[in-house]
């Protein structure tokens, strides 16, 4: 019984060691033992042996966590009271330090937790940044994806065409029916976003924005400076795309 192991031994982490030493990583043992956590020791992908470039012949897959925990070319698994001591886990590579830290010199990184689950995020795929639209168009088709760490589902995707002054909601498509708190894959979304008449003037610059909300009602921050850290990781601020209304002689 895995729960007895945790309670009686003090074991708190599962460590994974790859053939590309010194790379190794770990996850909380509660994630590894969770029957709904879907952690895999994988040797096949799409019914075929995992290619070497994808971490074969055997690799770990830890859905819902930062991909650095899904160790490739797996050689060994160990349980431990401590998390991995590798620089990719205990070093500064995956530590979300506070904004007042401007240099890692003299910083005790053990004070800060390693990244496991990632925050909610979303991205506009269509239209591409810098695209032009006709002044006669009163709406544009917008498509993209949203995702949240820890298996959290996407509950809502908001879109704005005027830099965040007004908003509308996208329709959630493929991936929106994933089991509760087991949403490991992207949720695709799309919307027909109306363009107000005052913005349909030749030469006008439009700012298309997307933001997502997950099943814990976590929201994306408006600006990167709200989540700034020295490494620049965990930036899940609103995704913005600049569009242009075609000039009359274009």
From TrEMBL:
Main enzyme class: oxidoreductase
Gene Ontology cellular component annotations, sorted alphabetically: mitochondrion
Keywords assigned by UniProt, alphabetized: Metal-binding, Molybdenum, Oxidoreductase
Highest taxon, organism lineage: Eukaryota
GO biological process: sulfur compound metabolic process
UniProt-listed InterPro entries: Ig_E-set, MoCF_OxRdtse_dimer, Mopterin_OxRdtase_euk, OxRdtase_Mopterin-bd_dom, OxRdtase_Mopterin-bd_sf
EC number: 1.8.3.1
All residue ranges annotated as the Oxidoreductase molybdopterin-binding domain in the record: 8-88
Pathway entry: Energy metabolism; sulfur metabolism; Sulfur metabolism
One Pfam family cited in the UniProt record for this chain: Mo-co_dimer
Gene Ontology molecular function: heme binding; molybdenum ion binding; molybdopterin cofactor binding; sulfite oxidase activity
Cofactor entry: Mo-molybdopterin
Name this polypeptide is given: Sulfite oxidase
Native species: Aplanochytrium stocchinoi
């Amino acid at each position: 019984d895995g729960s007895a192991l945790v309670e009686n031994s003090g074991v708190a982490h599962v460590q994974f060691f790859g053939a590309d030493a010194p790379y190794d990583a770990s996850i909380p043992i509660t994630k590894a033992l969770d029957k709904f956590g879907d952690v895999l020791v994988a040797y096949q992908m799409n019914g075929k042996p995992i290619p070497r470039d994808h971490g074969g012949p055997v690799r770990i897959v830890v859905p819902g966590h930062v991909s650095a925990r899904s160790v490739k070319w797996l050689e060994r698994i160990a349980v431990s009271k401590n998390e991995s001591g590798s620089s990719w886990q205990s070093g500064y590579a995956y530590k979300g330090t506070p904004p007042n830290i401007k240099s890692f010199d003299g910083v005790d990184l053990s004070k800060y937790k390693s990244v496991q689950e990632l925050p909610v995020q979303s991205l506009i795929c269509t239209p591409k940044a810098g695209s032009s639209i006709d002044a006669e168009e009163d709406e544009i088709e917008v498509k993209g994806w949203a995702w949240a760490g820890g298996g959290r589902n996407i509950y809502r995707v908001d879109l704005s065409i005027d830099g965040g002054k007004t908003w509308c909601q996208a329709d959630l498509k493929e991936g929106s029916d994933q089991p509760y708190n087991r949403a490991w894959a992207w949720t695709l979304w799309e919307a027909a976003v109306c363009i107000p008449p005052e913005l349909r003037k030749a030469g006008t610059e439009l700012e298309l924005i997307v933001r997502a909300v997950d099943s814990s009602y976590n929201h994306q921050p408006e600006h990167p400076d709200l989540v700034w850290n020295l490494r620049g990781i965990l930036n899940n601020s609103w995704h913005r795309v600049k569009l242009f209304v075609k000039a009359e002689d274009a």
